[in-house]
Here is the input.
Amino acid sequence: MAAKRRKDPLWARLILSFGAVLVVASGGTLVAAQVVINKAENSITSGTLIEGDAAAASDGSGNNIDGAVNLLLVGIDAREEGSSVTSVLSDTIIILHIPETHDQAYLISIPRDWRVEMPAYDKVGFVGATGKINSAFSFGYEGDGTELEKRSRGMAVLSNTLNKITGIKFNGAAIIDFNGFASVIHAMGGVDMCVDEEAESAHLGVDANGKLVQGWYSETYGIQLPEGVKPLVHKKGCRLMNSTEALDYARIRKSLSDGDYGRQRHQQQLIKAIAKKATSSGVLTDLSKLNALTEAAGEAFVLDTGGIQLADFIYTLKGVAANDLMLIKTNAGNLNSVTIDGQSFEQLDGESMDMLSAAKSGTLGTFLIEHPQFIAKSS
Here is the structure.
């Protein structure tokens, strides 16, 4: 019988990317795992992000999680404590789905312009509304409170909205501060990314000496840069990107042939690239780099494990390897827009809703066999 391929836990890779880590050495030996997990738990900001019907039932006990695992990953712009900003949109919405077999993982990107009905949320006096799903976070975020309290409320409105539409219950969630995420990529020495389509930046330029220059984007005039600075163009091909380049590439949508679907795909690819790099030998064997990564990740996101210990998550998902991470797109990556009262929205077609139903029922693998067009490029 052929030897079974050894797997490094995907959840360990993802959580290492975000700050909660399990160190896996060659041969599958756990090296100082509890010490590293404790350090991660002390670095990470935790809170209750999933409430009400959206939360999967758990008593927080035991070393193994029964059934499918669904985690909600949300990316937002950075906000400082005490900021005067009263509204924050969720730029990135991803469901990490792992079936009850715990041997496969799927990243399902939700279009931020999806027109949905958002349920009421009494904590902020929100009576419900119909609009783009990325605004659900902002309705919960508004009002008084600390930054953590605002973000937690925003996630609650968003997760309740997704639960109402799809029926999916979440075992946990993470709010990712993508500006803070730059320090995570920097701590790893950059990430390997493959540009699948030439893309012009809407936020970065390059001067005559090849130095990157930060610009800003105007809906009316496009990218705004100092005189003599040209927009950065990401050329096709695979290469090591620093944090500025990688995050910029993952934000682009205007210059892509498939618009926001291309942006979703590149964000998924970035998460997978970070997951791979985070447990590469170059990171795991460099204690200073590993410590810097853990500290940086602790500032990059807020984590809710639904009352389940991190070690239990890792134990449960130890059979999932990084190569088992499948990237999923809604509408098979095709735009399905509609204009209502002068505003453009994205609609999910019937097959996309069937795909989300399959995730809820634990039959997503079967659905994708029958509908391979929903699988995105992994690199």
User: Anything to note?
Assistant: Residues 1-33, 79-84 have pLDDT under 50 and may be disordered.
